[in-house]
Amino acid sequence: MPGIPSKDYETLKAFIASKTEVSVVASAFIEPTRQAVSPNASEEDIEISLGSAWKNLLDVAADVPHDDQEPLVELLRHVQKQDLSAESTLDARKFQIWGEQVKIFTDLPLFGAAVRDAWNRGKIKSVVYYPANSQQHQARVTRTTSPQSNGPT
């Protein structure tokens, strides 16, 4: 990863190397977005928070060998089960992002855009930055999170 890795990036990398319970890491992963999302949150605030979260996840996926990515897939599955709109302080409402009503995390808002951005950055930077293992991870995540999917095959 070029530049200085973020704290979230380092946390996710440490998660891959450890035996930390996925629920603990998922809670830490969603906390910045949980803090950014409030009844008065702007669409831009939510986009920035989600964009950062997805970028960190995809950056780690790019840097981790394909055979070691299962914890990231499991993390994303666990994160997707979180529904911030169900919290009492948010009045169980959906949030508007890019003109769509979405549930934060449940619907994985902006994840597809982040994947496209990761692929685009790979073309711009070099094949070293976004190797094939990132694309393999994204294919596995997409397969396991699609509405028609019954989980990994």
Helices, by number, come to 6
> Domains counted in the coordinates: how many?
1
- Major sheet description: 2 strands, antiparallel
Query: How much helix, percentage-wise, in residues?
Result: 55-70%
Task: Kindly report how far apart the N and C termini lie.
Answer: 30 Å
Task: Report on the architecture of this protein.
- The chain has 153 residues and is mostly helical.
- The chain has one domain (7-82, 91-143).
- The chain has six helices and two strands, in the order H-H-H-H-E-E-H-H.
- It has helices at residues 7-17, 22-36, 43-63, 70-80, 111-124, 132-145; strands at 95-97, 100-102.
- Strands 1-2 form a two-stranded antiparallel ribbon.
- A hairpin with a 2-residue loop joins strand 1 (95-97) and strand 2 (100-102).
- Helix 2 packs across helix 4 (70-80) and helix 3 packs across helix 6.
- The chain is globular and about 40 Å long.
- The termini are far apart.
- 26% of the residues are buried.
